[in-house]
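Input.
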Amino acid sequence: MGLYSQLELDFDIDIVDDFINHYSIMCENMEPLIINLSKSEYYEDNIKELFRIFHNLKSAGSFLKLDPIVKLASLCEDVTEEARVLKGPASEAFVDWLLLVSDQFNIYRKDVEHDAEYFSLFNPLIIKVPLTLEVS
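Output.
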């Protein structure tokens, strides 16, 4: 039984479909937000929006018991919480790290949508959170 099939058994189909729709939208919005973090004029709004996306993914993933999504979103929420107090622009290392994160969320999205039996492997490079989040 795949991930989507299990969600259908455990939850109302409308809840599952709403989650997948919202998750897809958040994944689509991540990359442009991340790329624009390197521009001072967009940094503050974009980092707040990314924090909100990660918080929402964590909450929805928790409700649906999607542990890999919850763990990744929790890490990202913690890092973006720290980054919200900075003035920006984001360092290249931080942008690159967030793009890896975005790719991982998209992989997980495809796993659910394609009813994969298990979530794909986690990219171990994500564990290496950059030390410098903004350009000095």
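The longest helix spans residues 40-63.
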